[in-house]
Structure formats: structure tokens, C-alpha cells
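Risk mitigation, structural track. In case the binding assays with iron/sulfur cluster fail to produce interpretable data, a predicted complex structure has been prepared as a fallback.
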Amino acid sequence: MTRKVLLRYSTQKATEPILASVIKKTEILPNILYAELSTKGGEILLSIDAPDKEVDKTIALFKQKGVEVQEIKRAIELDRDSCFDCGACLSLCPTGALYMTDDKSVELEENKCIYCELCVPSCPVRALKLSKF
Ligand code: SF4
Ligand code: SF4
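Fallback model:
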């Protein structure tokens, strides 16, 4: 099962090789969906495809190392039947999860979504919906 986990690094933890050390220990290679990390701290969003027990172990390791961990239990949906490709949501999306295809239709790559919700109110026809579970 794939689970999404947001890591928040404080300034003190930002320069420690925490991600590398957790990968080495668990031997699970997460997919980095988004990262904004500097010496002042920041965030990394991971997608971890592994059995639940292994993901729990990985989360526990990050916590032990002083990283704040938040599991993301959300989904975003683009209703293509309602969307008329106005593009209003595109510039608001910080990760490029919403993008315009070559034939000028707007699509959503959910793997890149960090669920910031910025796009949702921008849509005049409510074609973007965020659900939390
Ligand atoms: S919630 Fe919307 S704006 Fe935010 S990352 Fe996801 S698609 Fe982009
Ligand atoms: S704002 Fe709404 S209608 Fe416009 S492109 Fe985005 S999803 Fe489609």
C-alpha cells in the first residue's frame, strides 16, 4: 500500500542526513514527491510503497531522529466533465500537479499534489474537490 508522509525539518535537523540514514536502515526507497528544504529547515513529502508495518517503522524512525511527521490522508479530484480548461488553477499550484497538456486541456497528476488546497477555491465551476479520510 502506498502512503504519503510529510516530513517537517527544524533548523537544527535540516543539515543532518536523516533521510539517507532512514533509507539505509529500512532499505525502503521512498519516492520524493516534493521537497523544499534549506539550512533553515523545510518539508519533504514522501510516497512510501511498502507493507503497513514497514511504513509504520519508517515513520517511527523519522520521529526518533527528531523530524516532525504528518501522514497525509487526503485525495484530490479533478472533475473533467465540469472543467472547461480556463487555467485559473494552474498558476496557484506550487508543485505542477495541475498542468496543461499539449492539446490545452488541464490535467491533474495526483502524485505531485501536496494537498495545499490553493486550487480548490480558484475554480469557478468547483471542478476541484479535496476529500479527507
Ligand atoms: S491541492 Fe491543488 S494547488 Fe495544491 S498541490 Fe494539489 S493540485 Fe496543486
Ligand atoms: S480552474 Fe477549474 S475550470 Fe479552470 S482549469 Fe482549473 S479545474 Fe478547470
